[in-house]
């Protein structure tokens, strides 16, 4: 170890020793002094403050600050030796049991009642009690007689605020705290990237002060100032990236596609069997204006399930066809691409039959391109696309392959954009001579600050009204473990719906059997929980048991494409009563006669996913019912999440809940890249005002210095916080 000054790029092995540096690198991906200094505490504990032990989830790796209340030693039943049980807690009433196996009299002497400590381990449950088996711990001294703590690590905890770091079993929080202390003793902070005028105007502390106080705060006020400054760095880096991208996109040329009078779009509007909602008309007008501009449209269209996004997108596609171009729609699954194809053919009628007897005057052709097309059908479809005869082209990622060439691609529509990577969208855009206009659609409502942070280089349109004819959906949680009779009643309720002439979905989290795929998760759980329920296992059990005699179909992502399509067609035609499926039915599947959905192991799905799934019912005249079946305990975070989904159908409320429960850093693509997120402190929910301020400052700065040529330290900071991979992820079009 060295006492020489250290900088952000100094290797940790020079500062904390080889063994510790290796542990930090392999378990936490921390390699340099800068990595460690930017590894911020997750939270700060204070002696005497309540740790909400009752809210801890089984299977979670936790660090709790607690006081020893009592100890007990008893002989083990299955083998020789004693078991030491230590009860820790605080005056809130929550307690946790620590268990240590073997004869450890020294540990009993050390863990005396009254002593405070930090205890780290994995939460398990035994006979209804939360416990940590053989946890790592460090004691903070003796609260009863003032005895000095034995470990040097606890010097870090001498202050009132005790930092608790994101840790690993092999590298507990107090080891990280000790390493941070060593590094800060010699650390030379980098040049401050924020312009001095901005720091003064926004009353922000310098970077050196912020980095010290975030780890070793001398007061809550100093901690607040440090966190605020470092949040600014994160928000400002993201907003600068987005503002620069938006500016560059506006400078690119694109072929205008203005609306034409008396063409396909007018003919389509005249034959629509229903009136557009005011929202659809307004959003349609915004898109039409964008398409007529000489630079590429980059617009996000968000709307609840069933709000009519597809009709809005089809009208945009027809405007482009009227202007001599082609439009392509990229769908995430073959089921959805085929459904879009059928739906658009029905809506367009003779307008989609160019070259056929009885076609309309301004007709075009609508082609479907998927991986499962036969050779002859594929050759014919590709010829139609290449010649320009097919004005509208629908497909899956098969559209991206070599050999799919467009005559004049003017508009790319991406359905359920979160299912696609940026490189896939880029591959489709590259098939146009000039940058095409881009419309991305999502039925997952997006909180305002997420839209500002993740989609900040797109214009955003929102469809909030549901078209006439959509029915309400009631949702209820079915606690299968506590009240098995409720699950029996759920199956009887499904039979009642079928008896009334309706249909139902049963959704499982897993396909089952060996194999792989996006829907599949390996049935591995080291917390003692059973594997998630699987379609291929549940379907025969239902057919032999509670749904005996009903016509049951199975749908999942590993079925051959023609089989998937046949199952969906049978279900849509009413030839099946029940469809047992994975989340392959999550988006776009539209069967108005389906009125009920039972989601098994509902706690294994995310909030937005459950909201999407439930949108498959209530699409016709009859009301919808969604039952969320779970074995999770009342009061657990998983159960509270399900209760929240059941309590509202407001997608925007649920999107905010979803954001609270996910790691917010995922919005920067951490889950796609497999690397640590750089949104470490910024909360897209709690820091909305700060994000708006950062956006405003970013716009002003980029107008004055578009490429940050006069702000080199800032440009380097942006590059570090939003590296090329994340910048690519942020470009949503």
Automatic annotation (TrEMBL):
Residues 486-660 form the Helicase C-terminal domain. GO terms for molecular function: ATP binding; DNA binding; DNA helicase activity; hydrolase activity. GO terms for biological process: DNA repair. PANTHER family: ATP-DEPENDENT DNA HELICASE HOMOLOG RECG, CHLOROPLASTIC (PTHR47964). InterPro entries: DEAD/DEAH_box_helicase_dom, Helicase_ATP-bd, Helicase_C-like, NA-bd_OB-fold, P-loop_NTPase, RecG/Mfd, RecG_dom3_C, RecG_wedge. It comes from the Bacteria. Gene3D superfamilies: Nucleic acid-binding proteins, P-loop containing nucleotide triphosphate hydrolases. The lineage of its organism: Bacteria, Bacillati, Actinomycetota, Actinomycetes, Micromonosporales. Keywords: ATP-binding, DNA damage, DNA repair, DNA-binding, Helicase, Hydrolase, Nucleotide-binding. NCBIfam families: PRK10917.2-1, PRK10917.2-2. The keyword tRNA-binding does not apply. Transmembrane segments: none annotated. It comes from Micromonospora nigra. This is Probable DNA 3'-5' helicase RecG. Residues 290-463 form the Helicase ATP-binding domain.
């Amino acid at each position: 170890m060295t006492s020489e000054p250290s900088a952000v790029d100094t290797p940790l092995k020079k500062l904390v020793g080889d063994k510790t540096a290796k542990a930090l690198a392999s378990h936490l991906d921390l390699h340099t002094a800068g990595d460690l200094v930017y590894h911020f505490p997750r939270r700060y504990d204070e002696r005497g403050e309540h740790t909400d032990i009752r809210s801890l989830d089984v299977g979670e790796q936790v660090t709790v600050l607690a006081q020893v209340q009592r100890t007990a030693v008893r002989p083990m039943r299955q083998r020789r030796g004693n078991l030491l049980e230590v009860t820790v807690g605080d005056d809130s009433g929550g307690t946790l049991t620590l268990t240590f196996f073997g004869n450890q009299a020294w540990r009993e002497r050390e863990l005396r009642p009254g002593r405070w400590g930090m205890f780290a381990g994995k939460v398990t449950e035994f006979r209804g009690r939360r416990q940590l088996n053989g946890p790592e711990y460090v004691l903070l001294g003796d609260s009863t007689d003032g005895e000095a703590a034995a470990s040097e690590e606890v010097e870090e905890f001498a202050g009132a605020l005790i930092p608790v770091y994101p840790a690993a079993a092999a590298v507990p929080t107090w080891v990280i705290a000790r390493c941070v202390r060593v590094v800060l003793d010699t650390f030379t902070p980098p040049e401050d990237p924020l312009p001095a005028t901005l720091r003064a105007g926004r009353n922000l502390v310098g970077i050196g002060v912020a980095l010290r106080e975030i780890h070793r705060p001398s007061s809550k006020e100093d901690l607040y100032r440090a966190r605020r400054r470092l949040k600014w760095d994160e928000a400002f880096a993201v907003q600068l990236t987005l503002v620069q991208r938006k500016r560059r996109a506006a400078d690119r040329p694109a072929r205008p596609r203005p609306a034409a009078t008396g063409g396909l779009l007018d003919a389509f509007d005249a034959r629509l069997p229903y009136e557009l909602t005011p929202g659809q008309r307004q959003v349609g007008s915004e898109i039409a204006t964008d398409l007529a501009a000489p630079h590429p449209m980059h617009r996000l269209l968000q709307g609840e399930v069933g709000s009519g996004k597809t009709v809005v997108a089809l009208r945009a596609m027809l405007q482009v066809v009227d202007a001599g171009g082609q439009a392509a729609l990229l769908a995430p699954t073959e089921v959805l691409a085929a459904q879009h194809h059928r739906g658009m053919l029905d809506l367009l009628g003779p307008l989609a039959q160019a070259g056929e007897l009885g076609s309309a005057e301004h007709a075009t052709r609508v082609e479907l391109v998927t991986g499962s097309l036969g050779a002859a059908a594929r050759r014919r479809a590709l010829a139609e696309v290449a010649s320009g005869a097919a004005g509208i082209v629908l497909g899956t990622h098969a559209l991206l392959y070599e050999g799919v060439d467009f005559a004049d691609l003017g508009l790319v529509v991406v359905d359920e954009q979160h299912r696609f990577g940026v490189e896939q969208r880029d591959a489709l855009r590259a098939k146009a001579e000039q940058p095409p206009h881009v419309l991305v659609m999502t039925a997952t409502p997006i909180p305002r600050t997420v839209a500002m942070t993740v989609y900040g280089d797109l214009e955003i349109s929102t469809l909030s009204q549901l078209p006439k004819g959509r029915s309400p959906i009631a949702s209820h949680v079915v606690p299968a473990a506590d009240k098995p009779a409720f699950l029996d009643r759920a199956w009887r309720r499904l039979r009642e719906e079928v008896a009334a002439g309706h249909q139902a979905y049963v959704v499982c989290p897993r396909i089952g059997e060996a194999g792989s795929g996006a829907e599949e998760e390996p049935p591995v759980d080291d917390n003692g929980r059973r594997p998630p329920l699987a379609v291929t296992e549940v379907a025969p059990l239902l057919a032999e048991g509670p749904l005996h005699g009903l016509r049951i179909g199975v749908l999942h992502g590993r079925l051959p494409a023609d089989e998937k399509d046949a199952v969906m067609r049978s279900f849509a035609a009413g030839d099946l009563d029940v469809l047992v499926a994975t989340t392959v039915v999550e988006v776009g599947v539209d069967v108005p006669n389906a009125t009920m959905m039972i989601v098994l192991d509902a706690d294994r799905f995310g909030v937005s996913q459950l909201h999407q799934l439930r949108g498959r019912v209530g699409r016709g005249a009859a009301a919808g019912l969604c039952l969320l079946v779970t074995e999770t305990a009342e009061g657990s975070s998983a159960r509270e999440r399900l209760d929240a989904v059941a309590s509202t159908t407001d997608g925007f409320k649920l999107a905010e809940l979803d954001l609270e429960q996910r790691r917010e850093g995922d919005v920067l693509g951490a889950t796609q890249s497999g690397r640590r997120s750089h949104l470490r402190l910024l909360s897209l929910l709690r820091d909305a005002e700060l994000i708006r301020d950062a956006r405003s400052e970013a716009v002003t700065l980029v107008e004055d210095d578009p490429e940050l040529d006069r702000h080199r330290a800032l440009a380097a900071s942006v590059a570090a916080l939003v590296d090329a991979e994340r910048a690519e992820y942020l470009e949503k079009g």
